[in-house]
Specification:
The chain is α+β, with helices and mostly antiparallel strands. The protein has two domains: 73 residues, Alpha-Beta Plaits (2-Layer Sandwich); 96 residues, Alpha-Beta Plaits (2-Layer Sandwich). Helix content is 13%, strand content 29%. The protein is built from three helices and eleven strands; from the N terminus they run βββαβαββββαβββ. The strands form two sheets. Strands 1, 2, 3, 4, 7, 8, 9, 10 and 11 form a nine-stranded mixed beta sheet that branches. A two-stranded antiparallel sheet has the order 5-6. The protein is globular.
Length: 187
């Protein structure tokens, strides 16, 4: 009998650390997921929300998180002000971060994603500063990359939700909830 590997999709809420060990009273993955021996394939910072893939399959974890595999990740990003075409084109061509050019991103302006849950706490609201939503697709994963890219274009990120990692998506997954799925590479 073959030992099936575990793959867990988790919708990480705002303010949750991407680790199982406790840290100064903050919520961690252990507050939501009680499955032994699974580890996050990639991370989301404390202020980001959305899809986190966890697995006990080291090879899958490596393929999902190592930038050399250039696996596409899709983010929904709420930014300050509506970006001009030049800012979007700059993201599409790559942005210099820490002296190195990012890979080109696929970027398009979208409406607020359908079915998006309210964030707790809500983002800051400023009456005279409109916001816009972008769908950003990248194939690398530098530290806080999407936030740093939008900031470099003069449009700070207010809310960042990772929607997809490769074949995995948030579809049907409420914040703080998880489900186990099959590994498409072994099924």
């Amino acid at each position: 009998m073959r030992n099936r590997k575990k793959v867990i999709l988790f919708n990480k809420p705002f303010g949750v650390l991407c680790q199982f060990s406790s840290s100064a009273g903050r919520k961690t993955l252990a507050n939501f997921i009680d499955v032994p021996h699974v580890y996050a394939a990639g991370r989301l910072d404390l202020n980001s929300e959305g899809l986190l893939v966890l697995t006990d399959d080291g090879a899958l974890q490596y393929r999902l998180s190592d930038p050399r595999h250039k696996l596409e990740k899709i983010y929904w990003v709420q930014v300050e002000r509506s970006p001009e075409r030049a800012a979007l084109d700059a993201l599409r061509h790559g942005v210099v971060l820490d002296g190195q050019m990012t890979l080109p991103a696929k970027v398009r302006e979208i409406g607020e994603p359908e079915g998006l849950w309210p964030r707790e706490p809500p983002i800051r609201y400023r009456k005279n500063v409109p916001t816009a939503w972008l769908e950003v697709r990248i194939r690398e994963g530098r530290n806080r990359q999407v936030r740093r890219m939008t900031a470099a274009m003069g449009h700070p990120t207010l809310r960042l939700v990772r929607y997809a990692v490769g074949p995995y998506t948030l579809d049907g997954l409420a914040p703080g909830k998880w489900r186990q799925v099959g590994n498409p590479e072994s099924d």
